[in-house]
Each structure stands twice: as C-alpha cells, then as structure tokens.
From TrEMBL:
InterPro entries: DedA_domain (IPR051311), VTT_dom (IPR032816). It comes from the Bacteria. Residues 53-156 form the VTT domain. It comes from Tepidimonas fonticaldi. GO terms for cellular component: plasma membrane. Keywords: Membrane, Transmembrane, Transmembrane helix. This is VTT domain-containing protein. The lineage of its organism: Bacteria, Pseudomonadati, Pseudomonadota, Betaproteobacteria, Burkholderiales.
C-alpha cells in the first residue's frame, strides 16, 4: 500500500517553502513537549532539498527541540497532577512508567537515550519534570541526545544528497512501514516490561 510516497512528495515540497525553517522549529519545539510527530519528517527532506544548509537545519532542530523539552519539563513539574488522569487513560501511560523506571536505573542517561531514539521524547521530558530531575543534567543530556540524532539525519541527507533522493523515493513506503513496525514492536516491549 503506497501511503508514505505521497506524504514524502508533499514533505519535499514543504521543505522548499520559504517559511520551512520556521515550521521545522515549531514542530521540533512541539514534539518535545506535546505533539506526536517527530521533526525528522521535516528535517530529512529539508536537508535533502538544501544539503548546503543541513548543519544549520540540524542546529535549529536541536535547539528548538531542547527548548521544547524544557517546556515538557515544566509541564511535568508544574502540572503533572492535572495531567496524570489523562495520561493514565492514554496510550502513553506504559511509556511514562518505563521512563520513570529508566530514570531510577540510569538518571540523566535515560534522557540521552530517549533523545536519540524513536521513543516518545515528550514522555521523558514530562517525567523528568514530574520527578524533579536536576535541570542542568536534563538539559545537557537533551542537547547531546537530540543533537546526535538530528545531526545524524542531516549528515545522511547531506552525504547522500542527490544520489539519495531517488533511492528514498523508490523505497519510502518500505521504510515507512518498517518504522511503523519498529514503533509497534517497541510499544509491545514497553507494555510487557511494565
């Protein structure tokens, strides 16, 4: 089923829009605190469309993501009691419980791992605030973890450049469904660990 190819084409068109960096910044900020769509879906086509700007786009994504993570931290710190009933009834509750367990086991390293991985980062930012994790280690782990992830995406797009675009176009549906499968497996593993 060709679901991801039309989305990819649209993302490439949006990536060339003159306000695309603003949209990328807004998406990066929102994803770190409350929004479910990761910024990679904009960063990758933008870096592919403009490889000479890949590093500046990765920096923009990193900094706005860390700022969004600080907003998520504030949500957890100031409003977790109000948020908890909704969270318990949502699909994010097992991920939240996993985040708390990881914080107990690894402290700030849990933020680094969540920042680099496809695990919902917003869950970790809110959990860090709810648990009153020290702010400086949280911010540094976020900066390094998110930066590593976004610079890796930008590097792959810059390195691949024009050669990568036809390859991505040809295999985007397989890649998209593989990511969906990985998220499903990750959710199943997190559910069994709770």
């Amino acid at each position: 089923m060709r679901l991801f190819a039309p989305l990819y084409e649209r993302a490439l068109r949006w990536a060339r829009h003159r306000h695309a960096p603003r949209y990328l910044a807004a998406l990066s900020f929102a994803e770190s605190s409350f929004f479910p769509v990761p910024p990679d879906v904009m960063l990758a086509p933008m870096a592919l469309a403009q490889p000479q700007r890949a590093w500046s786009l990765a920096w923009l994504t990193t900094w706005t993501s860390v700022l969004g993570g600080l907003a998520g931290y504030l949500i957890g710190w100031l409003a977790f009691a109000a948020l908890e009933p909704w969270l318990r009834g949502s699909s994010y509750w097992p991920a939240y419980q996993q985040a708390v367990a990881w914080f107990d086991a690894w402290g700030a390293w849990a933020v680094f791992i969540a920042g680099f991985s496809p695990i919902p980062y917003k869950v970790f930012t809110i959990a860090a605030g709810a648990l009153a994790m020290p702010l400086l280690p949280f911010a540094l782990a976020s900066l390094v973890g998110r930066g590593a992830r976004f610079f890796l995406v930008a590097a792959l797009m810059r390195w691949g450049g024009a050669r990568m675009e036809p390859l991505l176009r040809r295999h985007i549906d397989r890649i998209g469904w593989a990511v969906v499968a990985l998220v499903a497996v990750g959710a199943a593993v997190a559910y069994t660990w709770r």
